[in-house]
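Input chain follows. Return structure tokens only.
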Amino acid sequence: MVSFEGDATDPHLSIKLIEKYVNEAKANVDESYTYSRRVSIDRVKRNAAGPADVLRLLKQPSGASREAVRAADYMDNTLHLIKSSLSIHARHPLFVLPQVRNVSNHILKTVNSDVDSDPLYTHLITIFGQWTDHDLTFTPHSPSIRSFNGATDCDKSCANTEPSCGSGETGHIFGARTIRQQLNTLTSFIDAGQVYGSDDSKAHLLRIFSTDEGLLRVNKKHKDNSRDLLPFTTMGANMCATRRRMTNNDSAEEVLCFSAGVSD
């Protein structure tokens, strides 16, 4: 119920108070996004980024998808602030799920003696299934590495806060996952979006519009036996710079990440 009068202790929220919480939530989310991007890129530049940092940066939403994710975070944080002001605590049913390994072993249980080499299908069919999946669904990582309320850094706290700390792959570090709805940032059609992009912003970045053909961009520096390679990304921080560290050779040439329709 919404009334046009009241304050934070009034069980009826006013329009003015709702607008206050919306503005506060937007400020919280924007600040966390800015902080997270600055810290994440700094880790890459200092060669201090771990695998989780690289994966999160590669799976960041972009273009229209990023705006949709940001809007969802605005709404989520607004509702959090309103519920906190009214002392409303939503209760969710708790279901104890079986271990993933037990489920897969039960469904696909077999013994080596029952496994025959298929004369028609190879492991490539599994890879093609993964390729097709990347054309249908892509759940981005949260752009934030700290909570929107209280500025809790997920890497420095065991607090299970909303929604970036304790959701997704980091959830079990905090003991339990934060309940959160996921977004699909791709089209739900088999349209080769992982090659050509799934939104106008990504599609324009991948094509050359200096000619009428509108061909896909290719790598200007390297080829594979005269065959074109994907173009390098234009990101300022090179997350794929691993050659020198892996070879212990400070003079090894680093290679930028490739750019494609999906970064996964």
